[in-house]
Automatic annotation (TrEMBL):
Transmembrane segments: none annotated. Keywords: Acyltransferase, Fatty acid biosynthesis, Fatty acid metabolism, Lipid biosynthesis, Lipid metabolism, Transferase. The active site is at 164 (for beta-ketoacyl synthase activity). InterPro entries: 3-oxoacyl-ACP_synth-2, Beta-ketoacyl_synthase, Ketoacyl_synth_AS, Ketoacyl_synth_C, Ketoacyl_synth_N, PKS_Beta-ketoAc_synthase_dom, Thiolase-like. GO terms for cellular component: cytosol. One of its GO terms (molecular function) is 3-oxoacyl-[acyl-carrier-protein] synthase activity. This is 3-oxoacyl-[acyl-carrier-protein] synthase 2. It comes from Jeotgalibacillus soli.
């Protein structure tokens, strides 16, 4: 049975570099950093100072305050970005098509901020004062649930929780839903709002966060002096659509999604498997699924967290998959500018990968000043680069040994 072709017809985003796709992409290509000093929490409570917060984001510009108060930040970000993506796709959802349009949005930790606030209320004022919205605000699937309600999408509704691979897994899973014929369109990606007391404390405790006090250069993937990631927040949402369905309604088409790979390390709860073995299999799976030779790939948006082991092992994995071609293959980590958006990372980075294909320009890896001898590939250091590419890949790797890769291709009939 032939596979149905799936294309990307809409993009929506809120990120530390802008509250829409256009401004974020402009800043990415300019090599600007969205990382700054921690402002949402008491800075003196933590040794880590660098975070990538949204700037000038007011949810009341997008929905009524009464509705917003029933949602954790991560859900607010998902709803706003999904509305942008559907509008961008010029997709009208009504009773005639609602059951064929689904939602699949991932989140790594869901409503951590809500959990903290309501637990404090419980401790200080007792169970009677805990909000009746506590559970539906906290649970990670509520981004998908609220997006479905807000947009009227009645098809498959799901959420993938695979730590920092959640966004990419969600996009890949949604791709397969359309490919096998269970939906005509899917609203998909990732959302996260992890800048909270316990998330900060937890990631500092397991030594994952950078303690670099120079916040402007704290996120430095593949650099010898990297010491951990910078926590970021936001959402990246795509509209995926079956090709004939998109063409029939005259939808804009950004790119075609052609491959998906997903594997488990079966090794350690936080550390990647030696040599990036699980990532090797995810990338190989995605290429096989796409029917694409490794030499055809023109760009990789790397997971590139700025942690010592990830960057080293992801580099090793790319060498294993691409062989001699790895030396010619441009790779970049946009986390150098956005920070690490955890479960939303795969969503925003898929958008960057798609725009790199469409605009024929590769985002840089900023703050790459002292190359690590063990990270010796072409990471597009510090400045964007024009490149005539037709195939691009995006990697996401998560705690628990989750590995996910998606492959996009320039659209042609």
């Amino acid at each position: 049975m032939s596979k149905r072709r799936v294309v990307v017809t809409g993009l929506g985003m809120v990120s530390p570099l802008g509250n829409d796709v256009e401004s974020t992409w402009t800043n990415i290509i300019a090599g600007k950093s969205g990382v700054g000093e921690l402002t949402r929490l008491n800075r003196d409570d933590f040794p880590a100072r660098a975070v990538a917060e949204l700037k000038d984001f007011n949810i009341e510009n997008y929905m009524e305050r009464k509705e917003a108060r029933k949602m954790d930040r991560f859900t607010q970000y998902a709803v706003v970005s999904s509305k942008m993506a559907v509008e961008d796709a010029k997709l009208e959802i009504n009773e005639s098509n609602a059951e064929r349009i689904g939602v699949w949005i991932g989140s790594g930790i869901g409503g951590m901020e809500t959990f903290e606030q309501q637990f404090e209320t419980f401790l200080n004022r007792g169970y009677r004062r805990v909000s009746p919205f506590f559970v539906p605000m906290m649970i990670p699937d509520m981004a998908a649930g609220q997006v479905s309600i807000a947009l009227g999408a009645k098809g498959m509704n799901s959420c993938t929780v695979t730590a920092c691979a959640s966004g990419t897994n969600s996009i890949g899973d949604a791709f397969k839903v359309i490919q096998r014929g269970d939906a005509d369109a899917m609203i998909t990606g990732g959302a996260e709002a992890p800048i909270s007391q316990m998330a900060m404390a937890g990631f500092i405790a397991n030594t994952a966060l950078t303690l670099n006090q120079d916040v402007s250069t704290a996120s430095r993937p593949f650099d010898l002096n990297r010491d951990g990631f910078v926590m970021g927040e936001g959402a990246g949402i795509l509209v995926l659509e079956e090709l004939e369905h998109a063409v029939k309604r005259g939808a804009p088409i950004y790119a075609e999604i052609v491959g998906y790979g997903s594997t488990g390390d079966a090794f350690h709860i936080t550390a990647p498997s030696p040599g990036g073995e699980g990532g090797v299999r995810a990338m190989k799976q995605s290429l096989e699924d796409a029917g694409i030779n490794p030499e055809e790939v023109g760009y990789i948006n790397a997971h590139g967290t700025s942690t010592p082991y990830n960057d080293k092992y992801e580099t090793m994995a790319i060498k294993e998959v691409f062989g001699k071609h790895a030396r010619k293959l441009p790779i970049s980590s946009t986390k150098s500018m956005t920070g690490h958006l955890l479960g939303a990372a795969g969503g925003v980075e898929a958008i960057f990968t798609i725009l790199a294909l469409k605009e024929k320009i590769l985002p840089p890896t900023i703050n790459l000043e002292t190359p690590d001898p063990e990270c010796d590939l072409d990471y597009v250091p510090n400045k964007a680069r024009k490149a005539d590419i037709d195939v691009a890949m995006s990697n996401s790797l998560g705690f628990g040994g989750h590995n996910a890769t998606i492959v996009f291709k320039s659209y042609s009939n």
